[in-house]
């Protein structure tokens, strides 16, 4: 269920794998995406299961309506009423509020400045990389007082450069924006390495290098891959800051539940 869970100075970074949920094939088992054709009840149950396993209140998880853009939203709580806005990055300074990003080959980027008490999550696929969603999320965190030099990052499971074949012209377009994303598949054909591009953008922003470990979704049977399966589920990456130890709300004027 939970593939990885790191804690850095009270900031939590977690990513899921595809096992341990209630979704049926082809979404089996822990599909967390609500817009991929799966039974909404199964997705709701899976989101509750994953949140409880992580020690989170399922109602305190912020999900985005991701559109491969670069817009970032500052949030102070779950969206109220209706659908989530169309953004590919969210940031918050609210402790205990988890930010979630959905992927199946795209790069989930999870960030936290534990000193400032600010976290961010971004969905960086090939279009988002080129559009600049990574600089956008770092900038939005900065608006809340985060410092790139203090920001810890985790890059979750995504398709690797050895697998992500694209037309030559597309490789050129991506490399023109982010040269480090230029790649070649193991078969020798043009490719894009989105994660390498994300890492390069983070480095240019002054963010310390994240750990190198990297699962390729397309090669891993434990992860969803859009490229491999087309109709498939979505993995989630979560980032949050530990809530105050006594569970009390922070003194911000809002009523405690
Ligand atoms: Zn691969």
UniProtKB/TrEMBL annotation:
Name the Gene3D superfamilies on file.
CNF1/YfiH-like putative cysteine hydrolases
The catalytic activity, as recorded, is:
inosine + phosphate = alpha-D-ribose 1-phosphate + hypoxanthine; adenosine + phosphate = alpha-D-ribose 1-phosphate + adenine; adenosine + H2O + H(+) = inosine + NH4(+); S-methyl-5'-thioadenosine + phosphate = 5-(methylsulfanyl)-alpha-D-ribose 1-phosphate + adenine
Task: Supply the CDD domains for this chain.
Answer: YfiH (cd16833)
Q: Which keywords has UniProt assigned to this entry?
A: Copper, Hydrolase, Metal-binding, Oxidoreductase, Transferase, Zinc
Q: Which residues belong to the signal peptide in this entry?
A: none
GO terms (molecular function) for this protein are: copper ion binding; hydrolase activity; oxidoreductase activity; S-methyl-5-thioadenosine phosphorylase activity
The record ties this protein, via InterPro entries, to: Cu_polyphenol_OxRdtase, Cu_polyphenol_OxRdtase_sf, Cytotoxic_necrot_fac-like_cat
- Name any cofactors this protein relies on: Cu(2+); Zn(2+)
Its quaternary organisation is:
Homodimer.
Instruction: Write out the function statement from the record.
Output: Purine nucleoside enzyme that catalyzes the phosphorolysis of adenosine and inosine nucleosides, yielding D-ribose 1-phosphate and the respective free bases, adenine and hypoxanthine. Also catalyzes the phosphorolysis of S-methyl-5'-thioadenosine into adenine and S-methyl-5-thio-alpha-D-ribose 1-phosphate. Also has adenosine deaminase activity.
Q: Which family does it belong to?
A: Belongs to the purine nucleoside phosphorylase YfiH/LACC1 family.
Q: What is this protein called?
A: Purine nucleoside phosphorylase
Q: Which organism is it from?
A: Streptomyces pini
């Amino acid at each position: 269920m939970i593939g990885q869970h790191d804690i850095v100075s009270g900031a939590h970074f977690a990513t899921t794998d595809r096992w341990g949920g209630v979704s049926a094939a082809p979404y089996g088992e822990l599909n967390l995406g609500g817009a991929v054709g799966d039974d909404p009840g199964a997705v709701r149950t899976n989101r509750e299961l994953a949140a409880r396993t992580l020690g989170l209140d399922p109602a305190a998880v912020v999900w985005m309506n991701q559109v491969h853009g670069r817009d970032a939203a500052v949030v102070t709580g779950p969206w109220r009423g209706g659908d989530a806005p169309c953004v590919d990055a969210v940031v918050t300074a609210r402790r205990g509020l988890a930010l979630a990003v959905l992927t199946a080959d795209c790069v989930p980027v999870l960030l936290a400045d534990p000193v400032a008490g600010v976290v961010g999550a971004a969905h960086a696929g090939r279009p988002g990389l080129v559009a600049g969603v990574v600089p956008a999320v770092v900038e939005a965190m900065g608006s809340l007082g985060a410092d790139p030099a203090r920001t810890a990052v985790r890059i979750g499971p995504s398709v690797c450069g050895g697998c992500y074949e694209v037309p030559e012209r597309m490789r050129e377009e991506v490399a023109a924006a982010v040269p480090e994303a230029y790649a070649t598949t193991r078969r020798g054909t043009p490719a894009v390495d989105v994660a390498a591009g994300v890492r390069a953008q983070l480095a240019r922003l002054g963010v310390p290098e994240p750990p190198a470990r990297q699962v390729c979704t397309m090669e891993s049977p434990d992860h969803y891959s859009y490229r491999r399966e087309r109709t498939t589920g979505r993995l989630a990456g979560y980032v949050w800051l530990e809530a105050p130890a006594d569970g009390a709300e922070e003194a911000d004027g809002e009523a405690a539940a």
